[in-house]
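R.M. (postdoc): so does anyone remember the format we settled on? I'll just put the structure tokens first.
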């Protein structure tokens, strides 16, 4: 396909993940009149990634973002199994690995991220797995049918979700974390403690301060995970879940500035005219946060798509939404809003059941910077609003479970409420 748009505008979106597919749909929803080309290097049409770490043993893990006819019905040209090998900013043209080219008015890079690997001996052994795509998830699900001992390397949200599924199926599970606690980069110490206890009470072994030095193998298959001190944890499969590396190579090739991700402004523009970027591949400013952030989440990808679409059709996308995330582990529905900061204090509130709670994190000025909840959707929504509105709350009221969050918020707006 060689396309010359001529006087008609043309958007080429490189990456058919959540960010790219959402942008294509929003552009048509906002009556963008030009050509839209959505290019994905996977053979599958755009799909939801979160179910992959929660339902990989079930056919229901495959959930398409849009019905089959959506792209044709909305005049979106969807190219699958195709990779963009270069972007020419001067000619405003993308070159594909099948030898074809297409011109653009604006190109949007939404290339996502790739699982981070561990460069140690044995990392290429059979039974060492990663999780990012539908094929990855299917391999993991198939592996569970012959797994007796699973090592999950990396105590992040994806790793803990996979560990929960494995334990639910009776598999022996060891979570191996390099830091002193699980979720050290993304969660509070209190949430890490509670989740560690929750998993260990269900038979999961959690090993921290363990620096992986290699894997032992037999006939090309993994048999154990080795630490630098020589200790070993036996397993027949290992999932590496130590984060993801943004796929910035295409952006770098065409002169886009990158530093821990593609650097963009609040709506997705890069330093190169005509080139935008959205999704997990970016580091971006946020209206309510200092500095630049690479926010790896579906809500962030959708929000960036919304602001990029508004910029392309020359409208305003409004203020940035408070960052939020979610995770399902056993019967825990975790929802987190905001970002943790230095110098904060933590107040916990009990939920309606023993498995529900909320952790509110307050700055010295008593405004809430983050809330972490389990099975407490109302607490999550109240905390998210407190973060967005930057209300200064009374810590004593917030810590008193007999005072409703509605009254806590009312007091923050109008004055104190007496606890009962």
């Amino acid at each position: 396909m060689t396309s010359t748009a001529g006087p008609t505008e043309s958007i080429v979106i490189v990456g058919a993940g959540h960010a790219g597919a959402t942008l294509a749909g929003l552009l048509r929803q906002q009556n963008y009149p030009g050509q839209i080309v959505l290019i994905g290097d996977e053979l599958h049409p755009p799909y939801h990634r979160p179910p992959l770490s929660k339902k990989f043993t079930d056919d229901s893990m495959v959930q398409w973002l849009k019905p089959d006819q959506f792209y044709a019905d909305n005049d979106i040209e969807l190219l699958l199994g195709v990779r963009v090998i270069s972007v020419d900013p001067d000619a405003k043209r993308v070159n594909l690995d099948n030898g074809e080219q297409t011109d653009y008015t604006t190109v949007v890079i939404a290339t996502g991220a790739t699982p981070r690997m561990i460069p140690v001996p044995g990392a290429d052994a059979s039974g060492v797995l990663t999780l990012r795509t539908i094929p990855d998830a299917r391999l993991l699900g198939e592996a569970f049918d012959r797994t007796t001992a699973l090592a999950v390397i990396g105590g992040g949200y994806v790793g803990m979700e996979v560990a929960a599924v494995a334990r639910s199926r009776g598999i022996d599970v060891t979570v191996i974390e390099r830091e002193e606690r699980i979720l050290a980069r993304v969660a509070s110490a209190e949430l890490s403690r509670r989740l560690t206890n929750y998993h260990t009470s269900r038979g999961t072994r959690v090993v921290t301060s363990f620096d992986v030095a290699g894997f032992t193998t037999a006939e090309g298959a993994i048999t154990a995970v080795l630490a630098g001190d020589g200790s070993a944890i036996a397993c027949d499969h290992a999932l590496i879940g130590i984060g993801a590396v943004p796929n910035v190579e295409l952006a770098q090739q065409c002169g886009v500035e990158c530093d821990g991700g593609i650097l963009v402004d609040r709506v997705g523009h890069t330093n190169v005219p005509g080139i935008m970027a959205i999704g997990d591949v970016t580091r971006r400013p946020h209206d309510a946060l200092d500095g630049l952030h690479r926010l790896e989440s579906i809500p962030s990808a959708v929000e960036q798509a919304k602001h990029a679409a508004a910029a392309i059709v020359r409208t305003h996308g409004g203020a940035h939404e408070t960052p939020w995330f979610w995770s399902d582990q056993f019967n825990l529905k975790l929802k987190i809003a905001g970002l943790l900061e230095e110098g904060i204090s933590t107040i916990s509130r009990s939920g309606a059941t023993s498995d529900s709670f909320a952790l509110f994190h307050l700055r010295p000025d008593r405004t809430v910077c983050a809330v972490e909840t389990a099975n407490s959707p109302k607490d999550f929504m109240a905390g998210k609003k407190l973060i967005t509105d930057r209300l200064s709350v009374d810590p004593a009221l917030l810590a008193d479970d007999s005072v409703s969050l509605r009254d806590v918020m009312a007091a923050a707006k109008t004055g104190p409420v007496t606890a009962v």
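R.M.: ...and that's the designed sequence above, right after the tokens. Also worth knowing: The chain has three domains: 2-114+245-312, 117-242, 331-414. The longest strand covers residues 212-218.
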